[in-house]
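[step 3/7] inverse_fold.run input=structure_tokens len=76
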């Protein structure tokens, strides 16, 4: 963990190690007790493909399963 400070123009410089690991683009999320930086992939669609590469079901199949589970949880 590193301590960083804003410069006189309100900019925050992240340490080189952080930039090398997570990249140069972030979403800033405001939380009740602080902020969180969420890295943004250079190619978000490619990142999603990589994340779900091992999923063998179609989006329709996943959607139907989720719908059925929600109905069961609601006491269908």
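[step 3/7] decode complete -> sequence:
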């Amino acid at each position: 963990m590193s301590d960083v400070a804003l410069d006189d123009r309100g900019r925050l410089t992240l340490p080189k190690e952080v930039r090398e690991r997570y990249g140069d683009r972030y979403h800033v999320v405001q939380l009740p007790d602080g902020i969180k930086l969420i890295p943004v992939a250079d190619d978000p669609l490619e990142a999603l493909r990589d994340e779900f590469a091992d999923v063998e079901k179609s989006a329709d199949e996943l959607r139907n399963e989720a719908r059925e589970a929600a109905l069961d949880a609601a006491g269908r």
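[step 4/7] annotate
Helices lie at 16-22, 44-51, 59-73.
The chain has a mean pLDDT of 91.
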